[in-house]
Write a structure and sequence with these properties.
- This protein has about 40 residues and is an all-alpha fold.
- It has a domain at about 15-40.
- It has one helix at about 20-30.
- The longest helix is centred in the middle third of the chain and has 10 residues, at about 20-30.
């Protein structure tokens, strides 16, 4: 749904990753300063 809102930030962005990729995905987000949005 966030894609449909025109990227104005009304709806939160969510991504899904396989359990086996979680730590890598979290590192990528952290490296790109998206930290704080990723559950610990």
């Amino acid at each position: 749904m966030s894609v449909l809102d025109g990227s104005i930030g009304i709806l939160p962005r969510r991504i899904m990753v396989a359990d086996r990729d979680f730590f890598r995905a979290r590192a990528v987000l952290r490296d790109n300063e998206v930290d704080g949005l990723v559950p610990e």
